[in-house]
Design a protein that fits this description.
α3 packs antiparallel against α4 and α4 packs across α5. Helix content is 43%, strand content 8%. The longest helix has 18 residues.
Length: 155
């Protein structure tokens, strides 16, 4: 069987806090990325040009996302703490830049970590479908765990 060609996200199972769940089965998570809006061309441009500028001569950690090189740190790899901080900062910046009709900009918006997105997605799917199975697939968890944590949101 021939594998689909294209850019793919490949994340080792042990990179997830719930890696021991049956969803992963000890295997890496693999997803071939779609190519809407010429996405692959943008990835190629980042990898071929911009990523090297971010590395600034620092050792390549072998990951897609790298931290910009600084005088105080030559380590370009994100760890769970530094990634979480960038995520929280970006989510806050993005929320304040989203124009809302009539109300203007979002007010009192707090930074959100990756778990906030996970919570919002699973809750939304549960409310729309009532299916712990669908919600578990979306957040890469088991239906039992979804029912336990988000079941109170069932319609």
């Amino acid at each position: 069987m021939e594998r689909p060609r294209g850019w793919e996200a490949l994340i080792p199972a042990d990179a997830f806090g719930n890696a021991g769940l049956s969803f992963f089965g000890g295997r890496a998570f693999r997803l071939v990325l779609p190519d809407p809006g010429d996405f692959y061309r943008h990835i190629d441009h980042y990898v071929g040009r911009h990523r090297a500028v971010l590395l600034g001569g620092a050792e390549d950690p072998g990951t897609f996302f790298v931290k910009p090189a600084k005088v105080t740190s030559r380590d370009a790899a994100y760890d769970s703490n530094t990634f979480h901080e960038v995520w929280r900062s970006s989510s806050s910046d993005m929320a304040f830049s989203i124009p809302l009709p009539a109300e203007g900009r979002m007010r009192d918006c707090f930074p959100m970590g990756p778990h906030n997105i996970r919570d919002a997605l699973s809750t939304h799917i549960l409310k729309q479908t009532g299916s712990s199975e669908r919600a578990s697939h979306a957040i890469r968890d088991t239906p039992e765990m979804v029912a336990k944590h988000y079941g109170r949101f069932l319609p």
